[in-house]
Design a protein that fits this description.
By secondary structure, this protein is an alpha/beta fold. It has helices at 2-27, 33-41, 144-165, 176-191, 207-226, 237-253, 272-286, 301-310, 325-331, 340-349, 352-385, 388-395; strands spanning 44-50, 59-64, 74-81, 88-94, 99-102, 110-118, 123-125, 132-133, 195-198, 230-234, 265-267, 290-294, 314-319, 334-337. It folds into 3 domains: 37-133, Sandwich (Immunoglobulin-like); 141-159 and 355-395, no CATH class; 170-349, TPP-binding domain (Rossmann fold, 3-Layer(aba) Sandwich). Helices cover 48% and strands 18% of the residues.
Length: 400
């Protein structure tokens, strides 16, 4: 009897265990979709490093996209400071992007980053990156081609300066307006009338004003030699000071400082049309034999040139303002157009330093023109033949 009871309990226990095992197998393991999904959208392999070739105010963050990147709406970039535990959002990128530039960092401070994948229902963060700090670089290797250009351009200028000093002056084409300077000064001397020189209305920071003052120095040397009165009205106080010193230096250079009259170089007004009216009054009263309008001009250019033409003076103008050139060409006898204004000081003085610089700049422009033509041809070939080597050659000319 005991044997039958024990056998019944044994078989009943085995049957119960089998039923439990069958039930558990049918139900399966507990749902783990949340953890699995987090693992599938978690970004990984985050790398934070100093951005190369910058001034030290940027850190580049790279990471590996989530395996289920299609589920991700965006990636948020969190940043923390090395001595603090909290993280704050500094930016975000759309799904599919795996790079971010943090340009709001301080040089020398250590930061760490985390990438958070954001979906419709959850946010999953990556591991924390290693601490990184930004540093400024002394040289931008992406601009190495610019360095080569600067060296080449400077070498051309130095070569032609040395060549000119040895007596091999470069050829400079004849410029009628500058050839007429000697005639204008001689005409004023014969008539016993002054010369009016207007150095433009702009400030000393304008390149046209600097070129005009260089020409003024050469004109002053000729007026000092012939003892001809030179009148220089100025609109800008600083230009007035520089013009006064340049005229004085020119008179000293030719040994005629005794005839220099500082009152002939004077300040008029900083108001545009008040200055134009005052210069018109000088031309009407003094009736100079020659008028020079060289520098930067605006709406007053025609007012000055037309008034000077009515007095019968020989007029020489020069400006790099395209809008005022038509008025000067119409109302003046000679006009220096564009870069003729910059070449005038070298043309008049014939100094080796200026002549060599002028020749070197011209050859530099020729090289730039050749580079532009070659680059245009390469771009055309790259669009037709799709050769990778053509794009690599084009990168040599990239200065961005």
């Amino acid at each position: 009897m005991n044997f039958l009871r024990k056998s019944f309990y044994r078989w009943f226990g085995v049957l119960g265990f089998c039923l439990l095992a069958t039930t558990l197998s049918a139900i399966g393991p507990p749902e783990s979709g949340l953890s699995t999904r987090k693992g599938s959208i978690r970004p990984s392999n985050i790398i934070a490093r100093d951005t190369p070739n910058d001034n030290g105010n940027s850190i580049t963050i790279l990471w590996q996209l989530s395996p289920d990147d299609a589920l991700v709406k965006k990636y948020e970039i969190l940043r923390g400071v090395a001595d603090k535990e909290s993280l704050s959002v500094v930016g975000s990128v759309m799904s599919g992007e795996r790079c971010f530039f943090d340009d709001k960092v301080k040089v020398g401070m250590k930061y760490f980053y985390q990438i958070v994948a954001v979906t419709d229902s959850e946010r999953v963060g990556s591991e924390i990156s290693k601490p990184v700090q930004s540093r400024g670089q002394w040289f931008n290797t992406n601009r190495f081609n610019v360095l080569i250009g600067v060296i080449l351009f400077s070498g051309l200028i130095l070569y032609f300066i040395a060549r000119t000093k040895k007596g091999k002056a470069p050829f400079i084409r004849r410029i009628s307006g500058l050839d007429a300077v000697e005639d204008a000064v001689g005409r004023a001397t014969e008539m016993g009338k002054p010369i009016l020189y207007v150095p433009g209305l702009s400030s000393i920071s304008d390149i046209a004003t600097i070129a005009s003052l260089n020409i003024l120095g050469e004109v002053a040397k000729k007026t000092a030699q012939y003892d001809t009165t030179l009148l220089v009205p100025n609109r800008d106080p600083i230009v007035y000071t520089v013009a006064l010193e340049m005229v004085k230096e020119s008179y000293t250079h030719v040994g005629r400082l005794d005839v220099f009259k500082p009152d002939n170089i004077f300040f008029v007004s900083d108001n545009q049309f008040a200055y134009a009216a005052a210069v018109d009054g000088i031309m009407v009263r003094e009736k100079p034999a020659a008028n020079f309008f060289i520098g930067m001009f605006w709406a007053e250019s025609l007012i000055l040139a037309e008034t000077g033409a009515t007095t019968g003076a020989i007029q020489i103008a020069g400006t790099d303002s395209v809008h005022q050139l038509p008025f000067f060409i119409t109302a003046c006898d000679y006009t220096l157009i564009g870069e003729e204004l910059y070449a005038a000081s070298a043309y008049l003085s014939r100094e080796p330093l200026l002549l060599g610089s002028l020749a070197g700049q011209d050859y530099g422009k020729m090289i730039i023109l050749i580079v532009l033509l070659v680059s245009s041809g390469l771009i055309l070939l790259a669009s037709i033949f799709k050769f990778p080597i053509i794009n690599q050659i084009l990168q040599l000319f990239n200065v961005s």
